[in-house]
Specification:
Blueprint: H1 2-7, E1 11-13, H2 34-38, H3 41-45, E2 75-76, H4 80-86, E3 91-102, H5 113-116, E4 127-133, H6 139-148, H7 151-160, E5 165-173, E6 176-183, E7 190-201, E8 206-218, E9 221-229, H8 237-251, E10 270-275, E11 278-283, E12 288-292, E13 303-305, E14 312-318, H9 328-336, H10 341-346, H11 348-355, E15 363-364, E16 395-401, E17 406-407, E18 413-414, E19 420-428, E20 440-449, E21 457-461, E22 465-466, E23 471-478, E24 489-494, E25 505-508, E26 513-515, E27 520-526, E28 535-543, E29 548-552, E30 556-559
Amino acid sequence: MFPLSCASGLPVGKNNESVREKRRPFPAAGMDSVEDKIEGEAARKDEESLSEPSEEEEPEGDEPRKDRGAVVGEVVEVTDSEKKKTDGGPRQKLRIRMVTWNVAGADPPSDLSVLLGLDAADGPPDMVAIGLQELRVRPDRLLWDALLGDAWSLQLMHLLAPHGLVRLEYVRLQGTLILIFLHVDLLSLASSVSTSYTRTGLYGYWGNKGGVSIHLTMGTLSLCFLNCHLPAHLTAGAQRLENLKLILTQLAGGTELDGAGALSADADGVEVVAGGGAAQMVSHAAGACMRHPPSSLGGLVLQLVFEWPCSLLFCLGDLNSRIDDYGNHFIKKSITSGQMHHLLVKDQLNAARLQEPFLAGFHEGPLRFPPTYKFDIGSDNYDSSQKRRKPAWTDRILWRMKGHSRVGTTGCTQNQNNPRISLEKYESHPSFTTSDHKPVSACFNLLLELTVREPLVTLWVMGSWNHDLEDEELCFALRKDFTSSSWDWIGLFREGFWHHKDYVSYMWAQDNQWKSGIEEYRLCFPRELIPKGGGAHRLGYYGSAHGHLVGMSPTFSISPKPQKFAL
């Protein structure tokens, strides 16, 4: 049943009704504006550090990791004037690495360190979001992937786990996959994690094209990461925009309406208000607003203006944008001569951001790298086949902050909420040649306000554990606003674990516990659940209502069981 759902375009991941997975342990198996961008190099330099709003908290008592160049979730003190602007306290800096790659059915390379930012001078990122397109979708492969995991996910977890990055969530729709990794010391800051998807292939019945997304809250900031794969070919520009509009509409929780009958004067949950010289019709049920001039109330098509449910939306993927008007020879000559500004004007996505209301407020870093499609596989040469497809910037990373935003002369995006996001790098990686696309990455710095410092659950042990003792004792404290469940469990994880199911052993949080303080509990961890080999481990508290680990203990040592030699 599960593989058949994948083959028919249903997604793999939680929070999808048709394939929802009960989170219960199982036996361990061990814009800036487009005009500014395309008018010249001087204007483009102003866009290097686009910024926007964001907020968050930091766990107390976490030790900095020795293999990182900077402390995880570094706390940044702000001036009194900055505190007055935000009415907040100190902020926490979160470094996010974002990657999009159409892998064209290829297996993952053995070394992805450069792409994932693991060799950066300031250490690995705190969060990694990876959007992949065109994974292999043969029925036999889908069965294997559903049972044991796809090759890309396994390779990414293998590479990121040694750096403390744990897979928080993922969702797959046929060949389109998105994964979020978060540093183990920041897992307790994430909440309200969920996934969604939209099929756009075959009029919405097939998942070969569409979008998959992961939603979460970090502190007071709600985030959404959307990975899209839109229709190909130069002439499909209008279809791409319609598909992207559909994906964003469903993401915003609304539906586009047209015609007089769709929004009548006595329609349920709809009202017409005046403002700005135009009437605005608001659908309270959908959470989206439809704007149109007063003269169009008689029945013209209405435009959808999204009311975003998230504070910050990242939209990445193979958006398949093409370059209009120019021929193959002129495009290649412009690339080799470094005159790519001619091409930016004719890029379909750049033009759409100027013309389409539903793309208002989306920002993108400067396109200073060559087009990322289409290459001969195994080389850095653009398409030399008989089709001779024109190079294009198909692979993109955009973002949008909720609220009306503008880009100032400093390259910072301002709005009334005043959190900040800055773009550090936006680049392609031409050294990867296993696909006809080149991967694209972006590095963001996000400042999050620390509203609540304590994690939902705090765990600790006294000293080290010894396998020779009868039982070991652990302690945990629940924050006052945390609602526990009989389905909550505590897992024992080796240092460098991959995801929340990668535990050595577990026990139910409400088994054999006793209260030792107002909000403090103690629990006996049975001897038979402690690994004989010893080593560095952590305890993690899985909140069933949250669907992920909501608290982690510091690393502690388990002494190995002494070997007995026969005389």
